[in-house]
Amino acid sequence: MKLRAIIALSLLAAAPALAQAPAASMNYGWAPKPVSAPIVAPNRALWRLADIQKAHAGQKSWSQMVVRDPRGLTGTYIQTAPGGKSPKAMYSDATTFFVVQSGQLRVSIDGIEPFTATKGFLVQVPSARFVQVEALGDAPSLRFEVTQTMALPIYAEGETPLPIKGMRFTRTGYYTAPVAYGDRKPFIDFQKEIVAGGGAGRGAVQDDGISANINRVASVPRPPDSDKGHFHIGTSEFWFILEGQVDYLIEGVPFFTAQQGDVVYAPAGRWHRATSGGTGMATRLSIHPVPSALNAMEPAP
Predict the structure, then answer these.
(1) pLDDT digit string (tens) for 88-99?
(2) What is the third-level CATH fold of 50-160+176-188?
(3) What are the Cα distances from residue 52, in Å, to 64, 135, 263, 290?
(4) From 2.60.40.10, 3.40.50.1220, 2.60.120.10, 3.40.50.2300, which CATH number describes the 34-42+191-297 domain?
(5) Tens digits of per-residue pLDDT, 192-249?
(6) Residue 168 and residue 161: Cα distance in Å, rounded?
(7) Is 254 exposed, middle or buried (0-12, 13-18, 19+ CB in 10 A)?
């Protein structure tokens, strides 16, 4: 069966300035869609936070990778025991970010006054900036961290590098200077700036190899299953649920609802649709391995 598609710029995965622009006019074209788009472990259509925490019950510090695309992005849940610190490290050619799910983290980024990040904080670190986090208070801190899969960390002198299979760490020199934040902010306090501020959403992280956009929408009735949504050409998309409940229909997967803290994944080439479920507001952080992504949408009959 021939596939007809409308190719349209995705405002959810575009730069912040585009998110405020009028919708682009639709254009028709032929979009390549894979015959098979498997979901390969550790990826799952839905990782429920409750199941992840259950698997690590009794552990004070742990990490679990839940998203990994070989040439895209990697998403990892990390829990740090009270008083625990991460090694001071940087990525020389890649932006990284994390979302705090619970607890308190003292965040120290080169060139930025240290700050405390709590639930809902989205913290981004441009390339070539060392960062270290420390869990404060009496409870562990849990965060969801996103990095570029092919990017490898450089550890500061005096730190003990975490082992990487097939790698041997060597002391070297380098001239790379920390990348400036520019118009970007070191962090967004989601609860204060978006929820309390009544915001509808915004671009959060934007770089050549990564983008994350906050999409906050009031609940709507479930659309018919004939509304397949769209797919992305050559790139996956995954979501961190920041608030409320989000309904998903992903090609080949039964309809499901994701809750706050859950992670949802759609591989490149699979139809997918996300709508706000439950009651009240729902917010998803849409994450792509590109600065902007095209939506390939099925034309109306």
Answers:
(1) 999 999 999 999
(2) Jelly Rolls (2.60.120)
(3) 8, 20, 10, 27
(4) 2.60.120.10
(5) 999 998 877 788 998 889 999 999 999 999 999 999 999 999 999 999 999 999 999 9
(6) 10
(7) exposed
